[in-house]
Amino acid sequence: MMVNGDMKNANKILKQHAPAPRMTKAAALLAALALSLPVGLVLVLVDMLLL
Questions:
Q1: What's the rounded Cα separation, in Å, for the pair 48 and 42?
Q2: What pLDDT does 36 receive?
Q3: In contact, 17 and 11? CB cutoff 8 Å
Q4: Quick count: other Cβ atoms within 10 Å of Cβ 12?
Q5: Are the beta carbons of 44 and 38 closer than 8 angstroms?
Q6: Where on the tree of life does the source sit, at the highest rank (predicted)?
Q7: Are 18 and 11 spatial neighbours (Cβ–Cβ below 8 Å)?
Q8: Most distant pair of Cα atoms in the chain: their distance
Q9: pLDDT score of 34
Q10: Residue 16: its pLDDT value, please?
Q11: Confidence of residue 10 (pLDDT cuts 50, 70, 90)
Q12: How far is CA 17 from CA 10, 11, 12, 42, in A?
């Protein structure tokens, strides 16, 4: 099964076209926090070890 072929077809729900999913501001904030907090902690730990 090829993923690209399935992605070209329009999504239909109850025989009506569904809009493409969009990232909300809250989801973008959660994604940014999920990425920045571990990186920040690692940088702080490395900085403390080098002092």
A1: 10
A2: 97
A3: yes
A4: 9
A5: no
A6: Bacteria
A7: yes
A8: 64
A9: 96
A10: 79
A11: low
A12: 7, 6, 4, 45
Q: Alpha-carbon dihedral of residues 40, 41, 47, 51, nearest 10 degrees?
A: 150
**Residue labelled with tokens 């999913």:** 21
Domain locations along the chain: 21-51
Tokens of 39: 């990186």
Question: Is the model more confident about 4 or about 24?
Answer: 24
Rounded to 5 degrees, what angle do the CA atoms 17, 11, 8 make?
Answer: 120
For the entire predicted model, the pTM comes to 0.50
Please enumerate in sequence order all residues whose Cβ is within 8 A of that of 17, keeping only pairs 6 or more positions apart, or say none: 10, 11
Q: Identify the residue whose tokens are 């403390």.
A: 48
Residue that the structure tokens 């002092």 belong to: 51
